[in-house]
Amino acid sequence: MLKPQATSTRELVSLDGIWSFAVVTTTDVDEERIWTGVIPPKLQAPVPASYNDIFVQESIRGHVGWVYYQRQVFVPHGWSQERYFLRLDAATHQGRVYVDEHFVVEHIGGYTPFEAEITNLVAPGQPFRLTVLVNNELTWHTIPPGRVEVGQNGERKQYYQHDFFNYSGLARSVWLYSVPTVAVDDITVKTDVDGTTGFVDFEIKTSQSIDEDRVQVSLIDEVGSLIYQTVGHKNRAVVKSAHLWEPGAAYLYQLRVEIMAAPGSGIVLDSYQLAVGVRSVKVIGNRFLINDKPFYFTGFGRHEDAPVRGKGHDNAYMIHDFHLMGWTGANSFRCSHYPYAEEVLEYADRHGIVVIDETPAVGLNLGIVGGVFGVKPSPKSSPLTFSPDTINDKTQSAHAQAIRELIARDKNHPCVVMWAVANEPASAEPGVREYMEPLVTLNRQLDPTRPVCFANMIHAPVEKDTITDLFDVLCLNRYYGWYAYNADLDTAEQALEEDLLGWQKKYGNPIIMSEYGADTQVGLHATLDVPWSEEYQSRLLDMYHRVFDRVDSVVGEHVWNFADFQCPTTIFRIDGNKKGIFTRDRRPKSAAQTLRRRWTEQKTYEKKL
Ligand code: BDP
């Protein structure tokens, strides 16, 4: 799915700004039919932003169900020859869009875009009332899953198994854009490298079937020189002495696709330009290769999370976060636990930051509900994660759709080197293999070029896990020294090493420690091993690093988490998860220096490369 862009043939109107906002108090939005009228601007909400922390009422912050967003929009008067679309970069978790009283599109899944053509609904130059209904309910059939229960006071409460706040609303941009009647609909690019030669395989879909010789494809380098040109929907560009997209040293070619009025006419009906990084990704033995060279991941698991705006995308935070990551020496991160805004991937493409791209499949695990997170235990009727009453076929269909939409959106980003199908599913429970295997197959069909992984949790150790053989890379989330052997780093060190050696022996795949860390209260200092102190966080990280350097198959370390982030409140999540290396307002804890030393100076892991 192409990101809308302004080109010589396309226009793009941002609908970001301040919208009228209302919380639905009736149970049935279809009865209320609010989109048929103007919503009084008693409350107004910014777009993009999660709405939860904007206001001061708990009834809004913790609201379960639908909210309304509304604004007026004009279709530019010059669009009489164009087709035009509304595009929402995300509506978390379910969005329904109305143009005046017409329903135009519905989408389920809170972190991927959707769009609808409205050419026949509003004439150029005319205004329309745009109403977006957004629902934040998570059920057994959504990804991520959750459930809504009615408490004794009659209030509906949302439960879920994941460890971050259920931020909701329109957290990413909304657009109105035009395309010509004959337009580029989609582009798929796959690249490969052989020595100094780069290969760019491309396939173009057009909105109407047109002759091959009307599709003109050009590859342009960073100084604007044309290095390849052809006609047709599908081909391979061979780039001799290619500038490769390398971690830390990105190079982006532009693939310009033009639809001509007639071959050789020089009249361009549509034009779209895609950034292309020429690189290869392979897993061979226990090494992860980028451009045939072993790569060692340093960096973080992250969240889209900031004060006030919640998961609302913000370019200032985004660029600052990239600079902070760069300062620590991070070369990569995981989009834990959902697809991030496309701007984030574009920035990573541009700056050579390596990304593991994850679906929102987090919390497919009832084993951790009562335990680690201290949330309400799973329903007594069905203690199993995978069962007809819990995670079932419908959840699997939603998960498959999440994989389709993630790959459709992100397949062309050179920064994305691996797909993560799920975070910490109950991979030792019955039913998990039946659930997961078709999804991994689907993922590989949709993109045969990138390795696939999932993040394994401690409750599914090597002798119990039943799905790891389906994947290419072992991603392990481990909390030795925190949830296990807290304040006992010596025992934690032994346990961690045994754990890693067990996986290494059984599978021989590359291992990435995809999460490790400790909650840390900034400003708490201690000479002894006191959990929550800044020193303990650093010592715990040092302990992991010693082990990583001793285990040959470890090819990456992603600390949990880049910054403190908001969670549902429990007795050990006061104002959020505090495992950040940076505070929520992005100030470094002492451990930032520990990482910076290791990732920019010592680099002892490089002996493996
Ligand atoms: C892991 C989860 C992550 C949590 C983390 C923690 O993958 O989402 O935030 O634990 O407990 O199990 O901090």
From TrEMBL:
<keyword id="KW-0378">Hydrolase</keyword>
<dbReference type="GO" id="GO:0004566">
    <property type="term" value="F:beta-glucuronidase activity"/>
</dbReference>
<feature type="domain" description="Glycosyl hydrolases family 2 sugar binding">
    <location>
        <begin position="14"/>
        <end position="180"/>
    </location>
</feature>
<dbReference type="InterPro" id="IPR013783">
    <property type="entry name" value="Ig-like_fold"/>
</dbReference>
<dbReference type="InterPro" id="IPR036156">
    <property type="entry name" value="Beta-gal/glucu_dom_sf"/>
</dbReference>
<dbReference type="Pfam" id="PF02836">
    <property type="entry name" value="Glyco_hydro_2_C"/>
</dbReference>
<comment type="similarity">
    <text>Belongs to the glycosyl hydrolase 2 family.</text>
</comment>
<dbReference type="GO" id="GO:0005975">
    <property type="term" value="P:carbohydrate metabolic process"/>
</dbReference>
<keyword id="KW-0326">Glycosidase</keyword>
<dbReference type="Pfam" id="PF02837">
    <property type="entry name" value="Glyco_hydro_2_N"/>
</dbReference>
<dbReference type="GO" id="GO:0019391">
    <property type="term" value="P:glucuronoside catabolic process"/>
</dbReference>
<dbReference type="InterPro" id="IPR023230">
    <property type="entry name" value="Glyco_hydro_2_CS"/>
</dbReference>
<protein>
    <recommendedName>
        <fullName>Beta-glucuronidase</fullName>
        <ecNumber>3.2.1.31</ecNumber>
    </recommendedName>
</protein>
<dbReference type="InterPro" id="IPR017853">
    <property type="entry name" value="GH"/>
</dbReference>
<dbReference type="InterPro" id="IPR006103">
    <property type="entry name" value="Glyco_hydro_2_cat"/>
</dbReference>
<feature type="domain" description="Glycoside hydrolase family 2 immunoglobulin-like beta-sandwich">
    <location>
        <begin position="182"/>
        <end position="279"/>
    </location>
</feature>
<dbReference type="InterPro" id="IPR006102">
    <property type="entry name" value="Ig-like_GH2"/>
</dbReference>
<dbReference type="InterPro" id="IPR006101">
    <property type="entry name" value="Glyco_hydro_2"/>
</dbReference>
<dbReference type="InterPro" id="IPR008979">
    <property type="entry name" value="Galactose-bd-like_sf"/>
</dbReference>
<dbReference type="GO" id="GO:0030246">
    <property type="term" value="F:carbohydrate binding"/>
</dbReference>
<dbReference type="Pfam" id="PF00703">
    <property type="entry name" value="Glyco_hydro_2"/>
</dbReference>
<feature type="domain" description="Glycoside hydrolase family 2 catalytic">
    <location>
        <begin position="281"/>
        <end position="601"/>
    </location>
</feature>
<dbReference type="InterPro" id="IPR006104">
    <property type="entry name" value="Glyco_hydro_2_N"/>
</dbReference>
